[in-house]
Structure formats: C-alpha cells, structure tokens
Amino acid sequence: MPPVPKSPLELPELLKRISRFVNLNDAVTYSRVCKAWSDHFASVVWHTIDFAVHKDLDMMDVRVFARYSHHIRVVENISERHQILALIATKASKLKRLTIDMTATQEFYAYTADLLRRVNASLEHIEIVQYAEDTVPYFAVDSLFPAASTGAASKLSFIKINGLMMTRDSLSSLLENCPSLNQLDILDTTLLSLPTYDDSDIHYYKHRGITHLTAPIGQIFGLGQTPEKTASLFIHFPNLKTWSTWSIGSDGPDQISRKVIRDQVTKYCPVLTALWTSTRASISIGMFTQVFEGLTEICIRNEEFSAELVVAILDHRETLSQVYTFTSNHFYDSETIPETKSNQLGTSGWIIQSLPRHCTRLKVLQFPSFEMDMDDVDHTKWGCHDLEELHIRIQGLDTKEKIDRAVDLWKEGRIAIQKQANGEQEGSDSSRLQLGSIIPPGDKSIEARVARHLLKFKKLREVWLGWKVRKVYTKA
C-alpha cells in the first residue's frame, strides 16, 4: 500500500498540473527541491533548448542530456557540430521544432541529415539556413520526412530551407511526402534541372494544403533561363493565398515580363490575394498595377514606401482589408519610442490618408514607422468604418505619457459607449454626458484629438501609437 501523502504538494496529479503553469525560472527552482519534484518539473525545464541563450549547455555532460532528452520538444539555434552530436547521442526523438544555422561543411551537413532522420516523425516546424556564399551543399530532402517503410506520416506544417540546393524532382518529393504542410520558405535555395512546360502538367506534384509561399520572383520563374519556356513553381500550389517575395540582385525580376507573371498566377494560383513584397518600389508598383487584381492583403518594405507606391496600392481599394509594412520580430517589444521615417515622403505625407479614406474594406492598417498629422486626419473622412487594428504614429504624440493618456481616453470612452449599448445608461444624452466628462469638448490637446478619432471606429480592438500594443474587448 503506497504511503499516504502528508501534504497536497505530494500528490503526483497536483504536481503535474502545477507544472503546466510555471515559468522556466520557477521550474528550475522547484526541480531542485527533491527527486519527486525534479521528475515533475523537468518537462518544463527541458522543453525548449536555445543554444543562443543557454550557452552553458555546450559544456554540459552528454549523460545529463541523455537523462532528460525525452522531455525536449524545441531546439533553437544549432550552429556548432558538437551541439548536433549531443542531440544525436541523447537519442532525443520527440522534437517538434528545430532551427539550424548550417555550416558549409560536408561533415556538419551529414550530421544534420542524421539528426533529421531520427526526429522527422515528430517534427512540426523546421528551419535550416545556410549563409555561406562560396559553398552551397545539396540538401537530402528525404531526411525531412519518414521513410515509407516506417508507416509514419510527416507532421510538418512549416518548412524553411534557405541557401541550400535541391532538384525540382526533390521539391516535388518533399511536397508529396509532407501532407500537413501549409507554409514553405525556400529563399535563396537553388533548384536544379527545371523541366520545361508540359500542357498536361502531370510532372509536378500539386500540394493543395500550402497557402503561404516565400520565394523570390527569379526563383519562381527560373532566373537565368528563358522564363516563357520554364515551368514556374506556382504550378505546385493551386491553393496558394499568400506570396512573400523579393528580388535576387538588382535587376533579376526585370528579365521576367509582368504578363508572364500575371498569366502564371491566373492559371495556377487563382486564390492568391495576399502579396508581401520586399522588391524595389518600381517592381512592386508593377506587381500592384499590372499583375494582380483584387488583392486583399499587402505588405511592403519601409524603405520602399513612397507616394507612387500608395497610388499603386489604391488600385486594390475595393478589396483591400490589410495593409502594413514589414517590422522586425521584436519591434513592438521595445521600451523606447522608435524614430519615424516620415521624412522620406517629404511634402507628400498626407498621401497615407488616401488608404483609410478610400479602402472602405480596410480592417488592418499598420505603418508604425510613419507619422500622420492630426490636421490631415481631422480633415479627411476615413471610409474604413470596420477598422480593427491601427498601428501608426501621430505628430505631437511623442512621449510615453502622451501616448498613454491618448490610449486611456480611448479605452475609457469605449467603456462608456459599451455601457450605453448594453442598456446600463438610459438615453443617448446620458451617454454623451459621460463621454463628455472623459473627453471634454473643449479639450484640444493632441491626446484628446487622437482619442476622439479612435472612438469613431466601433470595431477597433488594437492600437499602437508609438509604444506598447494596446487591446480592448469588442462585442461581436
């Protein structure tokens, strides 16, 4: 008969439940209390290994790795030979996410392939990047998915393979053996032996689950060959919705006519309506005006933003629901207010107003590096009444205190409006009185002006005005 627990914390079921809600630092502390606690909290401590953050792991005894390897699910930033060898030695076999910065050596490549074959049945997310320009290793695609003889199916939903080399047949094999895949990133991956057009299209596997593709224009159309005689990669993705693309070199995409791109998109990707473009402004303008019709989502580079580009985007004003610029992964985590890039628009800064004014279906507007002038905003009637997310800078709203006050006024105003809508206040006069006490009509401060503007959009649920993304609940 097992001993009766003296404390609720000795109950295995309770410890297991608690372990799901603690952070990494606390889990490390708790795992040192006793052996029983170590067993329960080890899954939290060892769930994620990031070699870029946990640099001391390089010095850890491989036997310790082996002891806890069954808990490891995520491994980030592998860049050294001994890191891969440690994972191979521990026989970690339940990895779900793996990111590798590959060294351009045959030895490193061989060990990477070995590790992948050991864990490919459990992987859901894989990123392999090779930055060296002098040597481009051939990538063994079959290491990414389980062999047919195992009876297991690939669980991969995201694949990023950058800077490597594979054949077009290998790409087809990869797609065929990864049925759960929905995002594919093959930036700067060289594709060999591009076949010629075949009217029957029977030589190319069509993956109907992939909706997001990252690949440059030149790569899609076989840069260096005659585009009109080369099968574009679009043939593989009949349900593609989002294409993230940029140029290779300074003039590569100019070798491919806009008509060729348009015809291929129309033929093979009829539901492609989102374009993320990092190409030069002239190329992006051509894509917006000569290739695509009815785009619903557009993402562009800050550096290429111009009045001409805004005019080109307006070609899609009847359908556009999201428009934004690329931001770094940690842009919104900053505790400082970032500098703006409005000066690159010169005296045409007002042109940004054209997007919320004319794009009546717009729900997401995110230009966090550009400022709007409230005088322009007040004199422009925004037509996007269903706006849900707004990330923008406002001239004069240049301190954390001003930003906080503007957001607080907006949120308090939303609460007052919501109470009135829920019948908690009687009559519209009562609602106006309460709202007037929050933002007095005579308050002409920049904070009050911004808050009044935000309150015009009943579905607005997220704003960023210079620091911290703020959200409010909106009733459906």
Quick overview:
The chain has 476 residues and is an alpha/beta fold. It contains 16 helices and 17 strands. The N and C termini lie far apart (55 Å).
Overview of this protein structure:
The chain is α/β, with parallel strands linked by helices. It has helices at residues 12-18, 24-30, 35-45, 62-68, 81-90, 106-119, 168-177, 217-220, 258-268, 281-291, 307-313, 354-358, 374-378, 400-421, 427-438, 446-454; strands spanning 48-50, 74-78, 97-102, 125-130, 158-162, 165-167, 183-185, 190-192, 212-214, 242-245, 274-277, 297-300, 322-325, 364-372, 389-394, 462-464, 470-471. The strands form two sheets. The chain has a 15-stranded mixed beta sheet. Strands 6-8 form a two-stranded parallel sheet. Strand 11 (274-277), helix 10 (281-291) and strand 12 form a beta-alpha-beta unit. Helix 9 (258-268) crosses helix 10. The protein starts with 11 loop residues before the first helix and ends in a 5-residue tail after the last strand. Residues 4-11, 18-25 and 224-228 have low confidence and may be disordered.
